[in-house]
Amino acid sequence: MGALRDILDRFGPAYWDRYGARMPRSHARALFDLQACGTRAMGGHTASCEDCGHAQFVPHSCRNRLCPGCHGAAIAEWTAARADELLPVPYFHLVFTLPSELRDATRNHQKDLLGSLFQAATEAVQTLAEDRLGGRLGMIACLHTWGRNLAWHPHLHLLVPGVAVGTDGTYATLPSGFLLPVRALSELFRAIYLRLARRAVPETPSVPWSKKWVVHCRPCLEGPENVLRYLARYARRCPLAEDQILDDDGHRVRFRYKDHRTNRTTTCTLSPDEFLRRLLQHALPSGFHRVRYYGFLAPGARRTLRSLQAALCGGMAALAQAIARLREPAERRRPLVCERCGSAHLRHLDFRGPRRVRAPPVFGAA
Fold first, then answer.
1. DSSP strand E in 25-97: where?
2. CB contact at 8 A, 66 and 4
3. What is the pLDDT of residues 127-152, one digit of tens each?
4. What is the C-alpha to C-alpha distance for residues 230 and 94, in angstroms, rounded to an integer?
5. Is 48 part of any domain?
6. Beta strand pairing status for 44-49 and 55-59?
7. Contact 193, 219 (CB under 8 A)
8. Pseudo-torsion of CA 35, 39, 41, 42, nearest 10°?
9. Do 195 and 203 meet the contact criterion of CB atoms below 8 Å apart?
10. Is 293 a domain residue?
11. First to last CA, the chain
12. What CA–CA distance (Å, rounded) separates 41 from 21?
């Protein structure tokens, strides 16, 4: 981390002094991790060169979900794991967005209301699928809490293979152009979400009946390989990449993003405190899963998935090359080399220091 590390080093201590006493534990943990990533504060291990005998300290990375420098390998590993689950059928991309009236409540009750978002969206899809398609679908659901300018904007991305599995084990592949009626899906999603949310958080605000709940559904015409690479960016991407940060002058932080309304790249200028607030608000509570799997793509339904792949074996042969490419590392790590002689023949020795910095226990849990 270059630009982000500079911002954290310059403005992080003052931000902590002002807001640390009432900062949620997840935010405090993220601030500590981002500042300590790749430094001795995060701990590390000693590596000895087998050629020249030089010993050097190798610091650990934080692997925090907000860190822009820690997820290249995670994206490659996740993509390779999902490659084994591809099916030779059309795929569909769905997006469920909460209305603006519910965003503040969702931010204040993240475990309950974001959990309700997962349950409502997937239950709405499965209910309509059973009614109109005669079976259940498999889904990968990925939560995003940010807009492109880092504002709080919770929404859910679903990747759905176009095959419905009946209760008797039979299956039916779907046409490539249509999955489910969006209007009916939107109304059902609204009803289920409000029921779940008000059960979990009784003070959930009301939403005007005339307000439209945004649900998008489109066929993925790019092919399964590109679809999976696309979803990997959603599943493992952090809110802001290093190359988006343009500069900070001590009073303002400026970063670029693409405005989806104009499809043009624009800039956003924020005070350092507002920039850190927007970034840290996307640190989810500890243990909250941002990526979840449903239907025949759930971990407990491997037998059903393998049966589908066996039944569609003719199409699987055509997918073989795409699956092989996805299994290759999407981003190869640079090998660790000796500081003295440049050799890559290093042997790891003892660990030193903590593997992860812990937030002080005085701050409240998220």
1. 44-49, 55-59, 91-97
2. no
3. 999 999 999 999 999 999 999 899 99
4. 13
5. no
6. antiparallel
7. no
8. 90
9. no
10. yes
11. 26
12. 22
Sequence-distant (6+) residues with CB within 8 A of 170 are 135
Residue 324: half-sphere exposure toward Cβ, Cα within 13 Å: 6
DSSP string, 248-275: E-SS-EEEEEEETTTTEEEEEEE-HHHH
The one-letter amino acid at 98? L
Contact 67, 61 (CB under 8 A): yes
Tokens of 321: 């090359």
> How many distinct structural domains can be found in the chain?
1
User: Helix or strand or coil: residue 206?
Assistant: coil
Enclosing domain of residue 295: 89-238+282-311
H or E stretch covering 230: helix 224-236
Higher pLDDT, 317 or 339: 339
pTM of the model: 0.86
Q: Is residue 42 part of a domain?
A: no
Tell me if 99 is assigned to some domain: yes
| Mean pLDDT of all residues belonging to the chain | 85
Task: Please identify which residue in the block is written with the tokens 């339904």.
Answer: 301
Q: How far is CA 110 from CA 107, 152, 156, 280, 282, in A?
A: 5, 12, 14, 14, 10
In the predicted model, what is the mean pLDDT of residues 187-216? 94
